[in-house]
Amino acid sequence: MMKPRTPLLVLVTAGSMMLAGSLLAQDQPMPTPPPPQPTQNTQAPPPPPTQTMPAQTPTPPPQGGTQAQTSAGGQQVTINSSVPPIKSGPAPSFEQLSGGSKYITEAQASAYPLLANDFSYVDKGHTGHITKAQYEAWVSHNR
Question: Where is the composition biased (Low complexity) (predicted)?
Answer without folding.
Answer: 64-76
